[in-house]
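Q: How do we represent a protein-ligand complex in a form that can be generated token by token?
A: Start from the inputs.
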Amino acid sequence: MEHELPALPYAYEALEPHIDAQTMRLHHDLHHKAYVEGLNKAEQMLAQARQDGDLGLVKHWEREAAFHGSGHLLHCIFWQNLAPAGRGGGGEPGGELARQITLDFGSYASFAAHFAAASTQVEGSGWGILAHRPYDGKLVILTAEKHQNLTQWGVIPLLVLDVWEHAYYLKYQNRRAEYVKNVFEIINWADVAERFNASRRRHA
Ligand code: MN3
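Then emit the structure tokens for the protein with manganese (III) ion bound:
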């Protein structure tokens, strides 16, 4: 089964003014699509290598699969993590997720400050990530420089923030902190909570 580029769950301009329509078009239609195609290519080449018994280039194709596979999966979460401001986006999390955030970070405000600082301080391209660590049930904030470099095994990403320049450069240029701050206006906390609850159910 080939991987496919999922449609955005809203219109290109739906996240304006926080993320502009042109960035969304480039980001989804070109960047995300390239990850899907790269992952399909890598998996085809690995299957071909197994079939031919010629595993000399496995390191190369595994790197390609990690790069494009992580790119594809993180973008799938990223689009769903966002929603138009005031129509599913913004505000604060509720329910079990809110309780766990308070437990693990002290308060929502402390979490938001930590997540924003971590995302802003990623060197070069990368991601800010809120993740559920099933082995002790805690929430953790991770940063990923590039995205093929796994930083903790076994975590379930709940909220991911794309801080590659292609995600914000047209509108924000080098002002990543402003982009990060504005993204809080379009976070779909219901989606994050659903991921959290699903992960807890799976790992209970
Ligand atoms: Mn991206």
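The two ends are 30 Å apart (CA to CA). The pocket of manganese (III) ion is lined by residues 27, 31, 75, 162, 164, 166-167 (CB under 6 Å).
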